[in-house]
């Protein structure tokens, strides 16, 4: 299992441990060919901080000297590496050279005997040009071999590659079959020819078909994806491990890896991405080096560039900027750009993994930014939870908003703001991603006015796209004047509905409402009703739920809405404020998203406390370890 430390959608920073050795993911495992060691594993660990490598048990087994050394001394001592060593099985050699004449159980046994941390079954490489029948056969045979291999693997972690060529239903089938075996590690195989031919859209379809059918907590490895160009999109799809032989393969041909491209060393006059191994001051010196020395230097450079890309990806997951980063990176090659669009076709499915907000503003990087699931999610939630009750509706442009503010108070109309990420009711202007969005002046407006028309149950719609507010005054006959409206109250109600469900706002605000604002910023901070503190407003415009607010929502909404149900073994701990662990969760509202506010209840649906979940139900039910819900407040014991 991967212990998830930070996440954004399917992307995660995690910790993976085997045999007391641990690495942080996403991680790149450099491929070590035990016959030709260019950068030694020790050097990798000491100078590059590499915690996991991959080598090939078929190559070791075939060579008498290596075989005897591995059996006698163990793999870790043979390679002089005390981090995680994964071994592959020879499947890739069968893809390159044809049949390798190897018994599939013998190779698993051999990996176990030499002390591999993660051994790989001898799967069937499903080529992209396989017929459907051939691919299906590869899936079934791979499954059969995995099933048999599992029986003899002992304590070794076993990797079961997912096959199925380019057929999505077969990839789904393969993922489900292999998942049912509950192996420790899942590579996605058969993609090297696709990557080599820049068929990134096909790889996206494959990865997504697999990810949607595998248990969430399992590590997923993309076999043979060694070019850093594809790392960001792959991580956004939930890939945890890469292996790279590219750093040596390219170096052997004097090819230089950059995060966005590959160049021939002798074509370079400037070095766009520099490392200590290759930069503008040593470029000419490198060109004139002896072949072997140059090869090693380029391998070092290529490895460093690949690792730096992983580091940038991790930084962007942590900072909440991964989507922007991927959109930026996918512009380096038209095939990657196509792949990004292919990925965004899954936005509907990705919404389940989408949180209400991020710590970083929504940056618009181009027309495809509005295809992110966070925007689809926003739109759907507005439709579900915002009700049009007034007779008129005024659509403002962003630049008119300030001018219109004084009218918003006075007119009993809906005011909507037209932006390039959607048309948003003013009550929701301060929530993520709207208020925090950094949008260009000249982006194309998103033509989703149909959203408003469809959900309006009144007959007049006035859309002033120009001339606000003069037009408002002119057209006053359409507008009902209101006594000064309490905009804060309208906002709190609309945000509560958006966040907790339609009707939450009205219920929470029954009674004597006091809204406390920050003296410095004027922003809403705390909401009291009948002197009870029910909600606090966060900087992202959403609420944290206090226990008194939780009690109201628990009464208002029927089981299982907003609930995380814990079993009897956990109940007493949670009542004392201890967090909820995965294996104690019995059920959960399937509409809850990562980082949502939740009601923690027992099996009798009695409220225990309020808190925040880190996962959705799809995820929690497959996680067996780790904390999943943080309890913030519990009922007082005598309540
Ligand atoms: N290396 C690259 N692709 C594959 C694959 O499909 N299976 C295995 N076992 N190794 C690989």
Indicate the structural class.
alpha/beta
Q: Could you tell me how far the N terminus lies from the C terminus, measured between alpha carbons in angstroms?
A: 39 Å
CATH superfamily of the domain at 22-50 and 128-342: Queuine tRNA-ribosyltransferase-like
Cross-sheet strand order for the largest sheet: 6-5-4-11-10-9
Radius of gyration: 28 Å
Mean pLDDT: 91
Key attributes of the depicted protein:
639 residues, alpha/beta, TIM Barrel, Archaeosine Trna-guanine Transglycosylase, Chain: A, domain 4, 6-stranded mixed beta sheet, 26 helices, 38% helix, globular, binds guanine
Could you explain the architecture of this structure?
By secondary structure, this protein is of the alpha/beta class. Among the domains are: about 20-50 and about 130-340, TIM Barrel; about 355-475, no CATH class; about 560-639, PUA domain (Archaeosine Trna-guanine Transglycosylase, Chain: A, domain 4). The chain is about 40% helix and about 20% strand. It contains 26 helices and 26 strands. The chain has a six-stranded parallel β-sheet with strand order 6-5-4-11-10-9. A hairpin with a 6-residue loop joins strand 17 and strand 18. Helix 6 packs across helix 7. The longest helix is centred in the middle third of the chain and has 29 residues, at about 290-320. It is globular and about 90 Å long. The relative contact order is 0.07. The model is unreliable at about 450-470 (pLDDT under 50). The site of guanine (GUN) has 13 residues, from helix 5.
């Amino acid at each position: 299992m991967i212990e998830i430390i930070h996440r954004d959608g399917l992307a995660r920073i995690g910790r993976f441990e085997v045999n007391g050795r641990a690495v942080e993911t996403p991680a790149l495992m450099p491929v070590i060919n035990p016959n030709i060691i260019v950068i030694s594993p020790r050097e990798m660990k000491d100078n590059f901080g590499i915690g996991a490598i991959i080598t090939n048990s078929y190559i070791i087994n075939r060579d008498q000297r290596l075989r005897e050394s591995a059996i006698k001394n163990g793999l870790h001592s043979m390679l002089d590496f005390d981090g995680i060593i994964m071994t592959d099985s020879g499947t890739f050699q069968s893809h390159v050279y044809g049949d390798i004449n190897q018994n599939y159980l013998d190779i698993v046994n051999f990996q176990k005997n030499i002390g591999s941390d993660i051994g790989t079954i001898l799967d069937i490489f499903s080529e992209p040009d396989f017929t459907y029948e051939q691919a299906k056969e590869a899936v079934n045979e791979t499954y059969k071999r995995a099933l048999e291999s599992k029986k003899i693997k002992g304590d070794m972690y076993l990797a079961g590659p997912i096959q199925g060529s380019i057929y999505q239903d077969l990839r789904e089938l393969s993922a489900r079959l292999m998942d049912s075996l509950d192996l420790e590690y899942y590579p996605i195989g058969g993609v090297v020819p696709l990557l080599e031919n820049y068929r990134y859209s096909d790889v996206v379809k494959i990865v997504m078909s697999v990810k949607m059918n595998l248990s969430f907590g399992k590590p997923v490895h993309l076999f043979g994806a060694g070019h850093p160009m594809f790392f960001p999109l792959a991580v956004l799809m939930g890939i945890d491990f890469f292996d790279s032989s590219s750093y040596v393969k390219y170096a052997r041909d004097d090819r230089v890896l950059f995060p966005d491209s590959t160049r021939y060393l002798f074509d370079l006059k400037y070095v766009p991405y520099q490392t200590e191994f290759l930069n503008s001051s040593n470029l000419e010196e490198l060109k004139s080096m002896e072949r072997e020395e140059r090869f090693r230097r380029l391998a070092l450079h290529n490895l460093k560039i690949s690792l730096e890309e992983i580091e940038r990806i991790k930084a962007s997951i942590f900072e909440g900027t991964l989507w922007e980063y991927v959109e930026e990176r996918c512009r380096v090659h038209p095939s990657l750009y196509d792949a990004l669009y292919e990925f965004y076709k899954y936005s509907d499915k990705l919404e389940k993994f989408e949180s209400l907000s991020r710590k970083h503003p929504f940056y618009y990087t181009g027309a495809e930014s509005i295809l992110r699931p966070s925007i689809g999610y926003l739109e759907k939630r507005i439709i579900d939870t915002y009700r049009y009750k007034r007779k008129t509706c005024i659509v403002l442009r962003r630049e008119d908003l300030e001018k219109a503010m004084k009218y918003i108070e006075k007119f009993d109309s809906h005011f909507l703001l037209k932006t390039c990420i959607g048309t948003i009711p003013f009550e929701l202007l301060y929530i993520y991603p709207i208020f925090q969005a950094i949008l260009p002046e000249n982006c194309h407006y998103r033509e989703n006015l149909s959203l408003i028309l469809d959900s309006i149950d009144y007959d007049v719609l006035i859309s002033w796209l120009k001339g606000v507010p003069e037009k408002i005054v002119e057209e006053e006959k359409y507008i009902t004047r209101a006594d000064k409206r309490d905009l804060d109250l309208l906002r709190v109600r609309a945000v509560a509905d958006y966040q907790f469900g339609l009707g939450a706002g009205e219920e929470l605000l029954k009674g004597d409402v006091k809204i406390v604002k920050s003296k410095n910023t004027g922003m809403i901070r705390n909401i009291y009703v009948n002197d009870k503190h029910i909600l606090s407003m966060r900087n992202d415009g959403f609420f944290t739920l206090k226990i008194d607010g939780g009690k109201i929502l628990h009464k208002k909404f029927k089981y299982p809405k907003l609930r995380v149900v814990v079993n009897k073994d956990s109940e007493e701990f949670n009542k004392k404020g201890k967090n909820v662990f995965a294996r104690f969760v019995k059920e959960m509202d399937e509409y809850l998203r990562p980082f949502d506010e939740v009601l923690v209840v027992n099996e009798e649906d009695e409220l225990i406390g309020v808190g925040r979940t880190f996962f959705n139900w799809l995820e929690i039910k497959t996680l067996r370890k780790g904390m999943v819900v943080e309890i913030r407040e519990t009922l007082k014991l005598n309540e």
